[in-house]
Design goal:
The chain is an alpha+beta fold. The chain has three helices and eight strands, in the order H-E-E-H-E-H-E-E-E-E-E. The longest helix is centred in the first third of the chain and has 18 residues.
């Protein structure tokens, strides 16, 4: 049900997100079947801040209340994609060529977890390059993927002294 609900919520929210000037990055449905957590990840050309999240929460809640895709109660979480941004569409992988990603798949040659630099993207596959090799991952076998965010600690702030 969670994959089906995820798809339903994505279909409901994608047109509104576009209309409101947001990018619907991903929808996740997790937790108990009777009371799931619906996580909506949004981005905006000017960035995401608390005010934009509050505005988005309002129109998202209105749509979900009107369409009622969840029987019973649920928890709604609306947030930015963060540094470990979910990659859910082939266009996401293409946008982040050269970045490092962590990818979970159906078993491929005995493995189901891959981390590496996104080097190529085609209509049906993503190529990751790592220290142990180059992996071609069919998009149809990717279950979950995220950018591996990096934090630069080389810039020390004055307030740390």
């Amino acid at each position: 049900m969670s994959k089906r609900l995820q798809s339903i919520v994505e279909d409901l929210l994608a047109p509104a997100a576009s209309r409101e000037g947001f990018e619907l990055v991903a929808v996740e449905v997790v937790g108990a079947h009777r009371s799931p957590v619906i996580r909506i990840f949004l981005d905006h050309p000017a960035g995401i801040d608390v005010d934009r999240l509050a505005i988005a929460n309002k129109w998202i809640s209105e749509i979900l209340d009107a369409e009622d895709p969840v029987r019973g109660s649920y928890t709604l979480e609306v947030s930015s994609p963060g540094v470990d941004r979910p990659l859910s569409k082939i266009s996401d992988f293409a946008r982040f060529i050269g970045e490092t990603a962590s990818v979970k798949t159906d078993p491929i040659d005995g493995r189901s977890s891959f981390t590496g630099t996104i080097t190529q993207v085609s209509e049906d596959a993503v190529e990751l390059s790592s220290e142990v090799g180059v992996f071609r991952l069919p998009f149809s076998q990717i279950k979950k993927a995220r950018l591996k965010g990096t934090v630069d600690f080389s810039q020390k702030g004055e307030h740390l002294k």
